[in-house]
């Protein structure tokens, strides 16, 4: 995973609430067994509609997507995070996110930032102006120049800033896991024995 | 000094946490759609599956439930699951195996899902297993890879929420009406960031099937997981199943401690009044856009509602029971278990599917299908004009040919009415199995109470 620090550029607006992952990548594209190439399926049904804002030339190549509350609710498909990233987004800014979606993004180095409704409104209304997200300082500098702070889980921040891979980090705790298995693990159903 | 009182979820968490931020996973369920990239990741990094004995796979999302072969991409994905499981030593139930079925149906059916366990799966409806008092939640593909490699997941101690039911379900109402009514009240992010525990006498009175329906839809309220404390209903359901413990009585003794202690507190509590609720149907494109069948399509409250009404082609003020349907889908991990099929068959028996409607039953597993056939339910359905299908996710998400055509309207027992969920341009109304059966025979959304005598 590449480290994430500073993301700066055009803000693309998607002024909708509760955009679910079925909208982000419809199911007919979940049959592929690769991890790449999902960008062309992003918001597939909406992209067929000429008035869908993200199609407008001023938003091409924008690194920041700003949207309403509960973005990425629904299905756990990580394809949604892959598609957004493959399309070119480096950060999604919203009032709130679906839990699994936000975790999926963090595992792929796609930054999710939660801001208050007034800051979201300002970003939506000022698009395609430019904003800057500073993960180290935990601020978003709005097009007006106002810098607003944001909260992020300390561990997620650390991992993103360093581009660390989760599995390697956990593997360093192999002894602890082995101790759990030896001392505290409960007898459970054995999938290989039934 | 006595130990501080704990909630159910805190007990399960404390039993499984390593350090304070790594959760040991007792059971990892795998399916074909969210696993191929995870297995590929293991391969690339030269890693193994740490605990094949705690891992089990099935093919469900992408299988064909009718005649005909799946398309090439689907076949490749199904073949990848079998190859990956063979390469990594994981037990898999592919299509054609008698234990094949929807991942959230076969876990409980095989007795793999047990109280006090931690269960994960690359699927948001993993919350289903919480009906047994397990801490069960959906994860993404990167996390699937993490669990395959380490049998653990980095996690934060969850926030707790109690949804307490007051009163009793009225006639014609089921667990589905209970949870739809709940989401209508608290919203699609009403439980966001929390693990919910469902409590109240009405919950205790639910069968295991009903509890599975309630826990299943926790994610539709944004919850991380949904749990119901185990009791005699739970234990009776588990006894004798292939995965059930040898020394069952000792296990029951151990499981009894998975109950919230007197005096334990939750971060949030919501009370839902059940008295007076009537069968529910969804009218919009998210599972909180729900109304009683006796009501009308509501006035839009905001832009989200307006979009939904436009997509659903509905006008405010229209009585819900005037809305005609083209299709009926009885299935999905929410409502495809034997009791669901029985409830629907009871309405269908002696009646015919309306001539304008195409209706299908897709059992949740081949075991459910076989049980239903033993009881003769298949004959009731087919005599009425229903299609009787193989098991799988089918039209719940429409990855296979079971999809709605643009503009078609469907009465569905599934869990999501998102735009295009059942097929591009398709319109979904969520409801209970009995309500879906009623819609099938009348050809419109129907209050099931009109079809049952007395
Ligand atoms: S039945 Fe539907 S909700 Fe359940 S696992 Fe399958 S696709 Fe997901």
Structure description:
Chain A has 194 residues and is α/β, with parallel strands linked by helices. Helix content of chain A is 31%, strand content 16%. Chain A is globular and about 55 Å long. By secondary structure, chain B is of the alpha/beta class. Chain B is 31% helix and 17% strand. Chain B has 15 helices and 19 strands. Chain B has helices at residues 8-16, 36-45, 72-88, 103-109, 141-150, 175-186, 201-205, 208-216, 232-238, 248-255, 303-312, 338-348, 366-375, 377-384, 433-442, and strands at residues 17-18, 22-24, 27-31, 55-58, 91-93, 118-121, 135-138, 152-154, 159-166, 194-199, 225-227, 268-273, 280-282, 290-292, 327-330, 358-361, 387-388, 409-412, 427-430. In chain B, helix 12 packs across helix 14 (377-384). Chain B is globular, with a radius of gyration of 21 Å. Chain B starts with 7 loop residues before the first helix and ends in a 12-residue tail after the last helix. The mean pLDDT of chain B is 97. The chains are: A alpha/beta (194), B alpha/beta (454). At the A-B interface, helix 4, helix 7 and helix 8 of A face helix 2, helix 3, helix 5 and helix 11 of B. The structure holds iron/sulfur cluster. The site of iron/sulfur cluster (SF4) has 13 residues of chain B, from loops.
Second rung of CATH, namely the architecture of chain A: Alpha-Beta Barrel
Number of domains of chain A: 1
| Number of strand elements of chain A | 7
CATH topology of chain A: Aconitase, domain 4
Structural category of chain A: alpha/beta
Distance between the termini of chain B: 57 Å
- Spans of chain B with pLDDT under 50 lasting ≥5 residues? none
Number of helical stretches of at least 4 residues of chain B: 15
Tally of DSSP helical segments of chain A: 8
Query: For the residues shown, what is the average pLDDT of chain B?
Result: 97
Helical residues, percent of chain A: 25-40%
Radius of gyration of chain A: 19 Å
């Amino acid at each position: 995973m590449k480290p994430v620090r500073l993301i700066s550029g055009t803000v693309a607006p998607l002024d909708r609430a509760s955009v679910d992952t079925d909208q982000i990548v419809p199911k007919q594209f979940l049959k592929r067994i690769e991890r790449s190439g999902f960008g062309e399926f992003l918001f597939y049904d909406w992209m067929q509609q000429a008035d869908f804002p993200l199609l407008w030339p001023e938003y091409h190549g924008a690194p920041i997507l700003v949207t309403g509350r509960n973005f990425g609710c629904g299905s756990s498909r990580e394809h949604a995070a892959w598609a957004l990233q493959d399309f070119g987004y480096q950060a999604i800014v919203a009032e709130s996110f679906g839990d699994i979606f936000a975790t999926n993004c963090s595992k792929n180095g796609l930054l999710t930032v939660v801001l208050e409704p007034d800051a979201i409104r300002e970003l939506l209304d000022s698009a395609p102006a430019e904003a800057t997200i500073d993960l180290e300082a935990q601020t978003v500098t709005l097009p007006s120049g106002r810098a607003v702070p944001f909260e992020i889980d300390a561990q997620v921040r650390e991992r993103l800033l360093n581009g660390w891979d989760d599995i390697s980090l956990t593997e360093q705790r192999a002894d602890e896991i082995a101790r759990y298995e030896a001392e505290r693990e409960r007898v459970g159903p054995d999938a290989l024995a039934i | 000094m006595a130990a501080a009182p704990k909630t159910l979820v805190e007990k399960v968490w404390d039993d499984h946490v390593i350090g304070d931020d790594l959760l040991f996973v007792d059971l990892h369920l795998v399916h074909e759609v969210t696993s191929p990239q995870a297995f590929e990741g293991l391969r690339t990094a030269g890693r193994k599956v740490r605990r094949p004995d705690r891992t089990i796979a099935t093919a469900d999302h992408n299988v064909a439930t009718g005649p005909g072969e799946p398309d090439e991409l689907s076949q490749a994905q199904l073949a990848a699951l079998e190859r990956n499981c063979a390469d990594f030593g994981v037990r898999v139930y592919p299509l054609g195996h008698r234990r094949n079925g929807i991942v959230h149906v076969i876990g409980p059916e095989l007795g793999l899902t047990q109280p006090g366990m931690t269960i994960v799966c690359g699927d948001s409806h993993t919350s289903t297993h919480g009906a047994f008092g397990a801490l069960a939640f959906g994860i993404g593909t990167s996390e699937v890879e993490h669990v395959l490699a380490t049998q653990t997941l980095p996690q934060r101690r969850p926030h707790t929420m109690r949804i307490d039911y007051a009163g009793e379900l009225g006639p014609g109402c089921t667990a589905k009406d209970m949870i739809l009514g709940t989401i209508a009240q608290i919203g699609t992010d009403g439980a966001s960031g929390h693990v919910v525990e469902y409590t109240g006498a009405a919950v205790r009175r639910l069968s295991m099937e009903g509890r599975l329906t309630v826990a299943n839809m926790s994610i539709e309220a944004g919850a991380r997981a949904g749990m119901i404390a185990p009791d005699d209903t739970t234990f009776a359901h588990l006894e004798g199943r292939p995965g059930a413990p040898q020394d069952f009585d000792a296990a029951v003794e151990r499981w009894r401690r998975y109950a919230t202690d007197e005096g334990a507190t939750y971060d949030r509590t919501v009370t839902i009044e059940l008295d007076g609720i009537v069968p529910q149907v969804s009218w919009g494109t998210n599972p909180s856009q729900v109304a009683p069948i006796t009501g009308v399509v509501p006035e839009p409250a905001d832009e989200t509602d307006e979009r939904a009404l436009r997509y659903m082609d509905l006008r405010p003020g229209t009585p819900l029971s005037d809305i005609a349907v083209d299709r009926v889908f009885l299935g999905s991990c929410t409502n495809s278990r034997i009791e669901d099929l029985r409830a629907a068959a009871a309405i269908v028996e002696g009646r015919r599917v309306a001539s304008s409607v195409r209706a299908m039953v897709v059992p949740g597993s081949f075991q459910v299908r076989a049980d239903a056939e033993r009881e003769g339910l298949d004959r009731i359905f087919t005599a009425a004009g229903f299609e009787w299908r193989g098991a799988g996710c089918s039209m719940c998400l429409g990855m296979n040919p079971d999809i709605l055509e643009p503009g078609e309207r469907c009465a569905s027992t599934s869990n999501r009415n998102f735009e295009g969920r059942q097929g591009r341009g398709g319109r979904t109304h969520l409801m209970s199995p009995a309500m879906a059966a009623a819609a099938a025979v009348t050809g419109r959304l129907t209050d099931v109470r009109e079809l049952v005598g007395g």
